[in-house]
Design the sequence.
């Protein structure tokens, strides 16, 4: 407990001192300092003290029965999966992504499907004219869907309109960066405007029970405020990822107050809009050739869903003593440095005079720690120019000690690899459940990275 502090208050001017003195330091009166017990309410505290004068908040028990919020399916299974089962009523969802990645397309498709299924849906576009949205809907074959459409940017106008009738079940705001609140100074897209507009729209969602979806552009140069400023305000944050030059897109939940954040939705952008990809492994593994060095297939896991991806490494020996480059696409560069260091320190392989390029095929971004072993296999294969068998997959986490650590969900990974025609798997020793579920797959288990490298090099 803190020691109660002694306070000396000048009886002439009210200033507070921590020790007694004969003369007040503030008003210079003599013999006015008197010791007082407890806190003294200065005029400032009296105005800013929040410990009284309010209404009582009802406190309830944590174990009281909870009411599950109602969910509305979007009609797109992959979107529902990322959301954890559909849009939650009275919630705010933010969908972020690079311009042109397909956010408007996805939401227009979801809006149209929900409207066709009988929900009331409003689509507010601040970026495109109503006719542009209409044309896009027609191109997508959804022109007949009963979606309420508006092109508007004033939050006051939008909320006045939405409040004038029964609240729509889904409201799409495309995009939050074009919205303008007249309560705040500044151009649309500035941090204060984005925040104020979002706050009003979220308040509408909570009060009226609509599911509000905000589109947020992410820009590298930061000229407009990105979705980051909104992440703590909304209930769910989805990121729409992918390379513009590639066909497919991944919808990832980064935050979800109503569900998990480990499920992803996979889509392919085609001429008729976004199509759902129920079996992503087949998509990421197209055009595999026999006997290519530096390529390994990794059975990644996204939530409960296995996705097979190809990891490619190119190792180029440098003649001169120039600093070699390390370049990574689709994986963590710090993690690559670690795997290279363990290969050097524990397995006697030298990459110090080699440039290393690592790529996850097809623009996929791997976050699963079990990728270490597949990356090591690709690197060793690239360095030694011995191909990894084309019918093999590899997964496992590498420790700094050079040990290969078991990873979760080995059975799921093996099952998916088996389904796609792989016959061999290289994995850590002692993975739970691997034996039973492997089925017809031939399993080779490794305890250390050194043993694994020996195996790859045929030693
Ligand atoms: P869009 O949804 O406008 O992106 P965002 O709202 O994230 O900025 O998507 C635009 C891109 O998608 C555009 O470059 C063209 C492509 N696209 C297709 O390939 N097929 C389609 O059917 C549609 C509607 C768009
Ligand atoms: Mg758009």
Sequence:
């Amino acid at each position: 407990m803190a020691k109660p502090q002694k306070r000396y208050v000048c009886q002439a001017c009210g200033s507070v001192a921590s020790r007694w003195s004969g003369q007040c330091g503030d008003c210079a009166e003599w013999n006015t300092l008197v010791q007082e017990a407890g806190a003294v309410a200065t005029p400032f505290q009296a105005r800013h003290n929040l410990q009284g004068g309010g209404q009582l908040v009802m406190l309830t028990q944590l174990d009281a029965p909870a009411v599950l919020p109602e969910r509305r399916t979007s009609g797109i299974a992959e979107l529902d999966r990322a959301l954890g089962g559909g849009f939650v009523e009275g919630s705010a969802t933010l969908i972020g992504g690079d311009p042109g990645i397909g956010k408007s397309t996805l939401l227009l498709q979801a809006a149209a499907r929900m409207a066709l299924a009988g929900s009331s849906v409003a689509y507010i576009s601040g970026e495109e004219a109503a006719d542009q949205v209409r044309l896009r809907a027609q191109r997508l074959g959804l022109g007949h869907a009963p979606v309420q459409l508006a092109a508007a940017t004033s939050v006051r106008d939008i909320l006045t309109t939405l409040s004038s009738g029964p609240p729509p079940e889904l409201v799409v705001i495309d995009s939050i960066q074009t919205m303008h609140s007249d309560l705040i100074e500044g151009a649309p897209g500035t941090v204060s405007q984005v925040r104020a507009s979002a706050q009003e729209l979220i308040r509408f969602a909570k009060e009226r029970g609509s599911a509000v979806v905000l589109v947020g552009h992410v820009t590298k140069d930061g000229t407009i405020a990105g979705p980051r400023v909104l992440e703590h305000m909304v209930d769910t944050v989805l990121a729409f990822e992918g390379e513009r030059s590639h066909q497919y897109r991944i919808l990832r939940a980064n935050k979800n107050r109503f569900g998990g954040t480990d499920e992803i939705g996979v889509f392919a952008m085609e001429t008729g809009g976004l199509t759902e990809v129920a079996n992503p492994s087949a998509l990421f593994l197209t055009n595999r050739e026999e006997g290519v060095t530096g390529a390994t297939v990794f059975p990644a896991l996204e939530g409960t869903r296995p996705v097979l991806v190809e990891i490619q490494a190119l190792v180029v020996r440098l003649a001169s003593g120039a600093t070699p480059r390390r370049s990574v696409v689709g994986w963590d560069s710090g993690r690559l440095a670690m795997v290279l260091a363990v290969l050097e320190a524990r397995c006697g392989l030298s990459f110090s005079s080699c440039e290393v390029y690592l790529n996850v095929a097809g623009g996929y971004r791997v976050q699963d720690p079990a990728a270490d072993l597949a990356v090591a296999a690709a690197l060793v294969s690239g360095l030694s120019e011995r191909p990894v068998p084309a019918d093999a997959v590899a997964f496992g986490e590498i420790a700094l000690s050079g040990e290969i650590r078991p990873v979760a969900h080995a059975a799921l990974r093996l099952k998916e690899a088996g389904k796609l025609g792989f016959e061999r798997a290289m994995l850590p020793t002692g993975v739970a459940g691997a034996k039973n579920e492997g089925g017809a797959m031939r399993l080779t288990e490794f305890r250390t990275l050194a043993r694994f490298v020996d195996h790859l090099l045929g030693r």
DSSP finds twelve helices and 23 strands in the chain. The domain at 284-457 is CATH 3.30.230.10 (Ribosomal Protein S5; domain 2). The chain has three domains: 3-45, 71-278, 284-457. The two ends are 67 Å apart (CA to CA).
